[in-house]
Amino acid sequence: MAKQIIEENCIGCGSCERTCIVGCISQIKNKKMFINSNACVDCGACQLACPSKCIV
């Protein structure tokens, strides 16, 4: 199952985007991050990199 971001807790730092091995995370216009669930391989790298622990 693809990872999801709890948007209200996201600080938009980009750590998850830089860590993603498949490049499925991008920043959207409100400076929050978005995970493309069709491309996510559920590796967990983004979850470990997130300082606000908003990826589940």
TrEMBL record:
UniProt KW Iron-sulfur keyword: yes
GO molecular function: iron-sulfur cluster binding; metal ion binding
Keywords of this entry: Iron, Iron-sulfur, Metal-binding
Gene3D superfamilies the record matches: 3.30.70.20
UniProt xrefs under PROSITE patterns: 4FE4S_FER_1, 4FE4S_FER_2
Domain 4Fe-4S ferredoxin-type: 1-30, 31-56
Statement: the UniProt record of this protein carries the keyword Metal-binding: yes
Cross-referenced Pfam families: Fer4_7
Name of the protein in its database record: 4Fe-4S ferredoxin-type domain-containing protein
Record organism: Cetobacterium somerae ATCC BAA-474
